[in-house]
Amino acid sequence: MKETFYDVMRRQGISRRSFLKFCSLTAASLGLSPAFAPKIAHAMETKPRIPVLWLHGLECTCCSESFIRSGHPLAKDVILSMLSLDYDDTIMAAAGHNAEAIVTEIVEKYKGNYILAVEGNPPLAEDGMYCIIGGKPFVEQLKYAAESCKAIISWGSCASWGCVQAAKPNPTRATPVHKVPGLANKPIIKVPGCPPIAEVMTAVVAYLLTFDKLPTLDKQGRPQMFYSQRIHDKCYRRPHFDAGQFVEHWDDEAARQGHCLYKMGCKGPTTYNACSTVKWNEGTSFPIQSGHGCIGCSEDGFWDKGSFYDRLTGINQFGIEANADVVGGTAAGIVTAGIAAHAGLTALKNAKQADKQPGAE
Amino acid sequence: MSEPTPPVYVYEIPVRLWHSLNALLIVALVVTGYLIADPLASVGGEASEHFLMGYVRFAHFAAGYLIAIALLARAYWAYAGNEHARQIFMPPLLKAHFWQGVWHEILWYAFLVKEPRKYVGHNPLAILSMHFVFVWGLLFMIVTGFALYGEGAGVGSWQYALFSSWVLSLFGDSQSVHSWHHLVMWLMVCFVLIHIYVAVREDKLSSQSLLSTIVTGWRTFKDDKPVDDAH
Q: ipTM of the predicted structure?
């Protein structure tokens, strides 16, 4: 008989009392009613454990760093024990060929029944030579592991959108997971952010493992429960925005008072994430609370939108560093000058015609 | 000299009403829109004492709703009204004569022909620019505007379901929708500048009235030359 989640947790020394607490906590963090806590408990006691294979491509490991700092230590322990950490090159003990053999073993043993978590993305240029895992391009390992998985989790902005390594001009052709050509057609859950919030990561894994189905995703493939609102919508500084109270300089009185960072280029109004509600590091703070605007790290292509400190962001299509006001204002200026010149020419032409035909009427 | 061509009733009340409403709303939308992207100087005191940004945004949203509803009503009138009511909605793009008219009008503005042709409705170049810049530009602003509004209204709202959901996916991210909404605002500003200039200029130089027609709906003529509305 295969091990259940509960068996694994008990083996890890987690008491039944702690297990039930975790179930309630998970239900709460997923926004479910208290009635779901026993259902989660039942599922975990009866369902066989689903292994999670955690691969790393071009990335900085900030997703892993965030994940192991999940706010509630219990949640972290439980989730980590649920994960098959047979293969996670950041934390596993094995190395070399022995380590690589584990990937094959999991893929063969759990065919079609494991979750593939991808941190980072594969570079496609030069046949993937910019990211080599165990002597082979990462893109090959990714395709191989994706072939027989149940679903893919794209951890962070790298796997979801491409992030910094895919920023222009993207010399290695770093490509987000869902755009990798020839990848098996599996459901993909994007959990963007650089890194994503720890509690969001653990909740997504808990949801997948306990309910055995994908959480509701939005049009862009992100779990709706965490990515359906902008930072701005739930920002504690929002009243200052509505009042028209803005920080104008980093060292002004408004900055000390904690007014809205809109004019300092805060991307809260265009960024979908849960930072203003879930916050970071056990709910301690989030960027805006510490006095710096949101840089929009969970949005597609946030590196290529000009300065983090401009409200109107750069428009790269115009080839130069320009924003909508520069482009539009210049156009309006040229049009106005054109009109003035044209009106002048018209007047000149009329005067000439009047000269040519004196008393023609 | 013979009598000038008799006046023609061209623009019915709904068309004129739409025109003046648009003029007011576009000014309001451009001003408030610019202030949303680049807000006024901060106000002092407690946040609870003020609602400045809130009022600016409210004015923008209210004017946005009005201009959208007005366009819907006007689209209906393009169907129900006289032939001039659908001129800028359905330009005769497949007729050679129309394009000859456009070319002649370009030459007229380049000072290369002596006289413009005479029209009861809009001249072909005006039809072309009003259709492609104004009508489509307005539609673009309404669609992206509602998409941005839907972001604040939330995932469950009809604005989000009808607009934000597909517009955000199309542009890739919310920031790009903001930038394009802002850019096309400047396009509308350029359109308004040129529109006013050529209206005044043609009123003075061409053989048909323009400025009084905006108010009364009647086109009057200064001479008896044949009109060229064959398109």
A: 0.89
